[in-house]
Amino acid sequence: MSDWVDFAPMTTTSSPAVHPTAPATTAPATRGGSFEAAVRGRGALLGIAVFWLASRAAMLWTLVHDVGHSTNTRVEVTLTYHNWYNVLVHWTMPHNDVMWQYPPAAAAVFLSPDLLPFLTYFQGFVALTVLCDAVILLGLLRAARREDGSVAGALMWLVALPLMMATPFARYDIHVTLFAVFALLCMRNRPRLGGVVAGIGAMVKVWPLLTLLGVPRGKSTRDAFVAAALSCAALLGVFAVLFKDTLGFLGNQGNRGVQVESLGGSALMAAKLVHLWPGKTNFQYGAFEYVGPYVSSIARASVGLTVLGFLLLLLWRVRANRWSSATPFDAALCAILVFTVTSRVISPQYMIWLLGLGAVCLTSKHSTQRPVAWLLVAVTAVTTLVFPVFYDDEVLTTSTLGTVLLCSRNALLLYATVWSGVRLWKATVRPKAEL
């Protein structure tokens, strides 16, 4: 089987059978062609730049002026990240802090404000986060210039991120999303480079390694996986030499419980609302988690669902026999959705990952995930109502409003995950009789 099985545009509706080795067909004209052309104009690009500046200024304003309880949002930088920085400057990982749950290369992110010594730690961290946001947007705009490209991805990122208010600029998840986005964008023509970027991202927060799931079989897979493995090993070696206890994060991560915002947490929350569960909320491991009966069982069930989801993704990988240029993007979004919805955590900043990967999918007119990506925009809006808007007064107090909001967010996220998997499977797995 060739590296790229089939680049013909795919849809989830019935279509004539296409042989796996059939040549790529020319993408059909779309009704959005004139819109795409208009957006690529200089005037439209100026409008995008103006909207980016205005929307990001508004996000910074909410961060500085504590809009929507953003004091709780920025304390992550001013307290948690800054405390880690004070340990990391002495060339040791903060292994004694149970909140340190990240691979060793994350240290570089928390030390990065030193690149801007004329700013405070908080100002430097936020400034670099805004820069990462801008670089992601530029990458998505550049991807739109491909023959089968679409500007919808850039527009999604441009408009959807501000829905999260201050949260994206007070977390380091945009930095990680930057690696995942560029790993996917590079994977199409330069799988080795894509693998290197994915490997670096994995050493910052593990999940970017899943961007390799949809790399076509053959030489592309070998190149990408070998490059990712080498970059991971090289970074791990460098940080092992420079810092003490580089693998101390593994024990802290394994001790995580069931966070309030998780799928299992919303089930406990609903049970608590109707007085069927007597547990309580406790702040531990850097988050509000549930403690009480059945919590450990739900935590184990979450891990089991994660393993099951991973096995289903591997089954898709084995059974898939029809790739398009967008399949690596689609598979990456589906994989991260699976691992997000089965997580014991599902912190609000996880939506940054999903928005980034959804935006990458929308850069291709061949993507099967377009409706899923736009659904994630709605999920993001509901997530913001959960945190930070109603988090303290409604969610943590298990009020009716807080319960409805959280359960609705998780139900939408679960639906998006199943929908994503179904669309990916239908588009890429064809019975042999049809080939």
From TrEMBL:
What membrane topology does the annotation report for this chain? Multi-pass membrane protein
Keyword flag Membrane: yes
Per UniProt, the keywords (alphabetical) are: Cell membrane, Glycosyltransferase, Membrane, Transferase, Transmembrane, Transmembrane helix
Which Pfam families does the UniProt record give?
Answer: GT87
Residue intervals passing through the bilayer: 44-64, 121-141, 153-172, 192-213, 225-243, 298-316, 323-341, 347-364, 371-391, 403-422
Enzyme class, top EC level, equals transferase
Localization, UniProt: Cell membrane
The name this protein goes by in its record: Glycosyltransferase family 87 protein
Name the species this protein comes from: Streptomyces racemochromogenes
